[in-house]
Design a protein that fits this description.
The chain is α/β, with parallel strands linked by helices. The chain contains 14 helices and 19 strands. Helix 8 (245-254) links the parallel strand 13 (237-241) and strand 14 (258-260). The chain is globular, with a radius of gyration of 21 Å.
Length: 395
């Protein structure tokens, strides 16, 4: 029997001719609760959609925002399947999907790129109008309905329209990036969010130039890649700022030249890191953005510097402490960056090529691997500062 015959089964509650399948997923039913790994019903892909068997999923801090409720009002309703860093193999394509076929390997971009809206047509697919509109709903782009359901019939929303904390998922083709079949999927999954976000924050958003001084505040999965991006861009000095000693030590393997336990320490030691002039670029990649910390980091930066805010601040935070006069008097800039201001279609393959050439270190990003049943163990390790990135490996 073929894989489709093994996986799909007729179901009495479906419309005539409809079929569905059962798979397993990690679901968040309420805020501040653990992830619940359980069996779910999965509908087949409709027009413009694909069914993918997951090979690996990164465990990004952004999914922790669902647990804490930091992004209340900006994320889909619960219950939700988590996960947005995923890679796998296409099993089936829906009507109208011509550029993907069963057997293709794909990486998911956590922001779908429709290719037709204003931002996409201008080269800013990270700000795709379709993704921005549909992301808070967590349903399928094509018709606004769910393909994922609990066994008792409730619809499940999806983190970033993906739900990669599942053995199988159905997503829109706009979220898929086809990659070479010999590229390792357990590393490729990281490119769907953390790697491009960090790397692009340095290369695109900060626009690091050769010889510049760069500070990276927060050295987890995104910060480590901001360090790599700054190094590849030719930064003269890269300061990694993080309270966790393990992360500071790992930062040195990714290209940091100086490490500090706090922003205060980095400010006190500007003489050793930048000869007292301040950093040309400051990149904020903390697990959770904080207005006070951003205001503090403002003092790390030099005249005509740029501070890039990549980490997500809680939606309830309404202000940051920045002396406005210095923006004018010192021509300092503060800019935001989503997905490192990158493009899933060009940057995911580009960075995988850099990895295969030995110019980008993905191997050391993965601290530990987990099974789907160990998802809560992985997030405990993240909260304790023990992981740069945990990765779920599927059979």
């Amino acid at each position: 029997m073929g894989e489709r015959s093994l996986l799909w089964r007729h179901h009495n509650t479906m419309i005539p001719g409809g079929v569905d399948m059962r798979t397993r997923a990690a679901i968040l039913h309420e805020v501040h609760a653990p992830w619940s790994v359980e069996e779910i019903e999965l509908d087949p892909p409709k027009a413009g959609e694909v069914l993918v068997k997951l090979a690996a999923s990164g465990m990004c801090h952004s999914d922790e925002h669902l647990v804490t409720g930091d992004l209340a009002g900006a994320t889909p309703a619960l219950p939700i399947i988590g996960g947005h860093e995923g890679a796998g193999v296409v099993l089936e394509v829906g009507e109208g999907v011509t550029w993907l076929q069963p057997g293709d390997h794909v990486v998911f971009g956590f922001i779908p790129a429709c290719g037709r809206c204003g931002p996409c047509s201008e080269g800013h697919s990270n700000l795709c109008d379709v993704g921005g509109t549909e992301f808070p709903k967590g349903m399928q782009i094509t018709d606004g309905t769910a393909r994922h359901h609990t066994l008792d019939g409730r619809d499940l929303t999806l983190m970033c329209l993906l739900g990669t904390f599942a053995e199988h998922t159905v997503v829109n083709e706009a979220s898929c990036v086809k990659i070479e079949k010999d590229w390792p999927l357990d590393k490729a999954c990281l490119l769907g969010c953390g790697v491009v976000t960090g790397w692009g924050s340095a290369v695109y958003a900060a626009d690091v130039k050769p010889g510049e001084y760069v500070a990276v505040v927060g050295c987890g999965g995104i910060g480590a890649n901001a360090i790599q991006g700054a190094k590849l861009a030719g930064a003269r000095a890269i300061a990694a700022i993080d309270p966790v000693e393990f992360k500071r030590e790992k930062a040195m393997t990714f290209g940091a030249t100086h490490t500090y336990a706090s922003i205060e320490e980095a400010i006190e030691k500007l003489g050793e890191s930048t000869w007292g002039r301040g950093f040309d670029k400051v990149i904020m990649t903390m697990g959770v953005g904080n207005g006070d910390a951003l205001g503090q980091a403002f003092w790390l930066s030099a005249k005509r510097s740029r501070t890039v805010v990549t980490n997500i601040h809680p939606t309830g935070e309404q202000s940051i402490s920045i002396p406005g006069a210095f923006l004018t008097l010192f021509e300092k800039q503060i800019v935001g960056s989503l997905f490192g201001s990158g493009n899933i279609r060009t940057d995911i393959p580009r960075l995988m090529e850099l990895y295969t050439q030995g110019q980008l270190n993905l191997d050391d990003l993965v601290t530990r691997t987990y099974t789907l049943d160990q998802v809560n163990e992985g997030y405990d390790a993240m909260r304790n500062g023990e992981n740069i990135r945990g990765v779920i490996i599927y059979d």
